[in-house]
Design brief:
The chain has helices spanning 3-15, 19-34, 39-66, 87-94, 97-100, 115-128, 138-150, 154-162, 179-192, 209-212, 216-228, 240-247; strands spanning 104-108, 133-137, 166-172, 197-202, 230-234, 270-271. The protein is an alpha/beta fold. It has a six-stranded mixed beta sheet. The protein binds adenosine-5'-diphosphate and magnesium ion. Adenosine-5'-diphosphate is lined by residues 72, 77-78, 81-82, 111-117, 240-241.
Length: 272
C-alpha cells in the first residue's frame, strides 16, 4: 500500500472514531505480515485493540465524573498493616457485585486507618467495570441537599443523586448534621434503597449515629434501610498517617494519638 493510501485510510478510520487503530495501523500491518497472520486473526487483533482503547476511555471518563479526592488503588493498600480488614471481603467488594445488587457498604473506624483510600479503591474498580460512580463527603452532600431544598429544587437534586449506580458518602460523623440536613439525608437514603448502592465511611460507631444526626429516630430509620442489605467492615487499628510520622521520627510509640477518634466499635465484619 502506498503511503498516501495508508494516510487516507487512517483519516477515514479517524472519521469513524477508530482513533487508536488509525494511529497504530502502519505498525499493525507490518506486524501482521511479519507474523503471517490470517485475515481473520488480523481483524480480531484490530477489533480487540479498539475495544481495549474504548474501555480505557470510558473508564477514564467515569473516573473523572466520580470526583474522587485522590486516586489510590486497592492494589496499593497494605493489608498487612491493617489485619482487622479481611482482604477477601474487600476483594469481593472490588468485583462490583454489591453494586449490581444495589447493596450497601459501611467502612467504620478511627481516622487514618484507610477508609477513604479503600472507598476510592473500590470506586475506581466500579468505574473500570463501567458503573457510574459519585464520590461526595457527607458535609458537602447535606449542604447541597439543604441548598436544593431552600431553592425549591429538592426533587431535581434527589433525582440527580439517585442516578449514579454507586454513591460514595465519605466522613459521616466528623461534623454534626443539623435537623433539616438529617431529614433530607434520610430522604436520599430512602430513594436509593434497593435501587442504588451506597458506600459510606464513618469514624463513629453505628451507636454514635444518633448524635451525628442529632436525632435517634432519624438515625435508626437511616440505619434500618442502609443495613438491610449491607457489608460492614469494621477497621480497628492504628492510623497509617501516624505510622508514617513515627517512621519519620516525629512521634514516639508511647505518645497517645488524640484527635477525637472513637474506638470500640461493637459491630464486626458481617455480611448479610
Ligand atoms: P481515613 O479515611 O480512614 O481517615 P485515609 O484513607 O485517608 O484514612 O488514609 C490516610 C492516608 O494513609 C492516605 O494517604 C492513605 O492512602 C494511607 N493509608 C491508610 N491505610 C493504608 C494502608 N493500609 N496501606 C497503604 N496506605 C494506607
Ligand atoms: Mg477519610
Amino acid at each position: 500500500m502506498s503511503a498516501t493510501s495508508m494516510e487516507r485510510l487512517q483519516e477515514q478510520m479517524r472519521s469513524l472514531k477508530l482513533q487508536r487503530i488509525a494511529d497504530e495501523l502502519p505498525m499493525l500491518v507490518q506486524e501482521a505480515s511479519k507474523r503471517e497472520l490470517s485475515y481473520t486473526d488480523f481483524v480480531a487483533e484490530f477489533v480487540a485493540r479498539e475495544l481495549g482503547a474504548k474501555l480505557e476511555r470510558t473508564t477514564q471518563m467515569k473516573t473523572q465524573m466520580a470526583r474522587f479526592p485522590f486516586q489510590k488503588t486497592l492494589e496499593s493498600f497494605d493489608f498487612k498493616f491493617q489485619p482487622s480488614i479481611e482482604a477477601k471481603v474487600i476483594k469481593e467488594l472490588s468485583t462490583g457485585r454489591f453494586i449490581a445488587d444495589a447493596d450497601n457498604v459501611l467502612l467504620l473506624g478511627p481516622p487514618g486507618v484507610g477508609k477513604t483510600h479503600l472507598a476510592v479503591g473500590i470506586g475506581l474498580k466500579a468505574c473500570a467495570a463501567g458503573y457510574r460512580t459519585q464520590f461526595v463527603t457527607a458535609a458537602a452532600l447535606t449542604a447541597s441537599l439543604v441548598r436544593a431544598h431552600n431553592e425549591n429544587r429538592l426533587e431535581e437534586k434527589l433525582k440527580q443523586l439517585v442516578q449514579p449506580r454507586l454513591l460514595i458518602i465519605d466522613e459521616i460523623g466528623y461534623l454534626p448534621i443539623e435537623r433539616l440536613g438529617a431529614n433530607l439525608f434520610f430522604q436520599l437514603i430512602s430513594r436509593r434503597y434497593e435501587k442504588g448502592a451506597i458506600l459510606l465511611t464513618s469514624n463513629q460507631s453505628l451507636a454514635g449515629w444518633g448524635q451525628v444526626f442529632g436525632d435517634q429516630v432519624i438515625a435508626t430509620a437511616i440505619l434500618d434501610r442502609l443495613l438491610h442489605h449491607s457489608t460492614i467492615v469494621n477497621i480497628k487499628g492504628e492510623s497509617y498517617r501516624l505510622k508514617e510520622k513515627r517512621r519519620a521520627g516525629l512521634l514516639t510509640r508511647s505518645e497517645p494519638y488524640t484527635d477525637g477518634s472513637s474506638s470500640g466499635n461493637s459491630i464486626g465484619n458481617q455480611e448479610e
